[in-house]
Design goal:
The chain is α+β, with helices and mostly antiparallel strands and 186 residues long. The protein is 19% helix and 46% strand. The protein has one helix and twelve strands, in the order E-E-E-E-E-E-E-E-E-E-E-E-H. A hairpin with a 2-residue loop joins strand 6 and strand 7.
Length: 186
Amino acid sequence: MINFRISKEYSNAYIKCQSRDLGNEIEISKCNLNFQTRTHNPSHLYGISYIFRINWFTKYQFVKYIIKFTIDGDPSKTLDFTLINLTIDCKTCLHKCEWINPTAVQKSGSLHSNTLIYPCSSDYLNYTYLYTTAVSTNAIDILSSPNPPPRQEFYRTRYISIVTFMVVPLMSLLIYMMLKRRQQSR
């Protein structure tokens, strides 16, 4: 269970989500949002159907994202989520995923959409291997099509191949040197 509470002088909001450990990933889903705009106003409860997945070994950074949800199909009723600078860090990070929206362009969302949002892994936004300098950049909208164009897949595969061919010989050489040094010290 994940809980998040915001309280201000005259209003408050509460988000409660379910989470599941999937091994190398965590899935966050079935979020309920309860908010009250004024102290004496009734509270409102809405379900958020998006499914979020994050990798245990990836550091995530979301900067300047504004997601606007229309409530009950009425354009005059909206719920805006603003992420100024959110970082999700891990102890043993191997990758870094950055979603940076420098101009703070608003995105539209639907509370009833059950779209899977898997930052960087499925839509190929800025994804960096922390032990290399290989970066794949593409500004695909957070709530757009989850399928990357074939050309993007080719470039991502090429970067992974280049990194693999650079890292494997280097690691082999380091292991060989360590073993040789250990044998000489005996």
